[in-house]
Write a structure and sequence with these properties.
Elements: H1 10-23, H2 25-35, E1 43-54, E2 57-67, E3 72-78, H3 89-102, E4 108-113
Parallel strand pairs: 3-4
Antiparallel strand pairs: 1-2, 2-3
Helix pairs in contact: 1-2
Amino acid sequence: MRLTIAGVCERDRDLLFLEELSSSADFSCWFLEATSTMEAPEATPIDLRRSVTQSTGESDLEATSELADGSRFRLLIENKIDAGLQVDQDLRYLQRAADYVAQGGCDSARTEIGRASCRERV
């Protein structure tokens, strides 16, 4: 069988991630481990969102999971395919992550931006 796709855009990647995070516990745990400092986390996705817009900008994806200890961890993801970062985009992501923690939306948060990640946990 041959499968041909004319092009992949950011939205396609976002929807694929959402589908996998919501349907595969193994993928969800692997993805959290790969993008955070957690080792083999036991995590249950509890809230997955695409294109979350706030006053500080837009997150392509936001994935909130409940960890084995009952805490909530939120991962904010920016996908980059054919575009570079906007001015201070990484800093705005970090601010949104810090705001979620400060406002009680989660217990901890982290950002992941394409290949060039600002992997700072708040």
